[in-house]
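User: Before I run my own analysis I want an independent prediction to cross-check against. Here's the chain; please return only the structure tokens and, at the end, one sentence I can use as a sanity check.
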Amino acid sequence: MGDEFLDPGEVKRLADENEFIINPLFEPLFQDSIDQPMYYQVFGGRGSGKSTAAAVAVIDLTYSKYGHKIMYLRATMTSMEDSSIEDIRTAIKDLGLSNDFRENKGKIINRVTGSTVTFKGIRSSGAATANLKSLSGITTVVFEEAEEIKSFEEFSMIDEGIRKKGVPLKIIMLYNPGSALSSWIHKEWFKNGKVNEERLDDTVFIHSTYLDNLENLNPKKVASYERYKKTNPVYYKNTILAEWTLDAQERVYADWDLIPVLDQEGDTWYGLDFSYYGKDHTACVKVTWIDGVYYAEEMFSEPKQLITDTVRAMRDAGIPKNAKIFADSAMPLLIEEIKRKGYSGIKKCRKGRVEAEVKKVQDMDIRIVGNESSNLFYHNKTWQRTNGKIKDHEPDLFAALRYAVNSKKPVKPAKAKKRPAKRKKGFIGGNRQSSLN
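Assistant: Structure tokens:
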């Protein structure tokens, strides 16, 4: 690109030329003027293109005459590497701008303009808030998974730190409203699921779904979304169309379809939660992943189990000795006891903040294997939030399910023979298939 700045909007033109279509819905993200609104509520469902559009807009801003300093924020840095950072890297490469950028210690720098894109977790651990000195000079903030921000107070501490004079300021919030309904976001910018018109003077609202991004999606993916209309209409409405569903706002999880019997094979593993006596149960859930769907089946849920009882229940449930089992990490001695009984695949689960992990489960396509007598089905109907907060005790089967799905990435079964991949219309770059989504 030489030593000259690209003209405003030039990056978007490059995207359009390379058959990556930016829907006009996202045009406001490319604004770069002093009088622009400060807040951008960008909410949408799966395949809506919101994250990719934001990444391209951020790259465009790095060529601005204002010398923007841009920061991506998430609740923690744990998932940043696989999401926001990779979105920016991929967009730069597929737009043919690699020579204009370099990366240094997690910071992406535009060689031509000196503009930077940095990435930070809001909380390093627990409730610790990121050092706000790092916001000095920042002009644009992108909140990825904005619903992970715990409170308006946490948001406002960051918001108040974005105050550089003489440049356009922009705060972009990306999220799925199905996960944010009872959060402070809804209270601040919406009323009864509708845009709060009192905020139209300082906020741009952008709602998108896969229907706004059809040009960039694989037809098979579109077909899978369409299938949910019949097989899982609540999931389709909440997660795919990303609507503010007020009727279920105090339910922790939306309705999950019941599948009487699972007659397909897939990647299979287990979650195990130990009881602490009292009303606690030792609970085990089998998870089978097939083509993006998590099928959850109750193995057992029993109170006051000794370790011998648990091993017997696992054996009676037909759990293989070499099965992958992710167990409550708070009980390492019990895990070791079960391993000594022959279950060599048992290990500690990956454990984080409960609210963040529950949010991940909420965004998954989950179906219950069983019938209405299943405890998974019963608890899914009864586990409630209180004023938007998860205060009730988490049912032990849900804890076991959470341990399982948050501890392992699904793996597609290996095929006997590999067929040559069909050439598809590229997302960027003409005939080659881009990894942007």
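Sanity check: Residues 260 and 370 are 5 Å apart (CA to CA).
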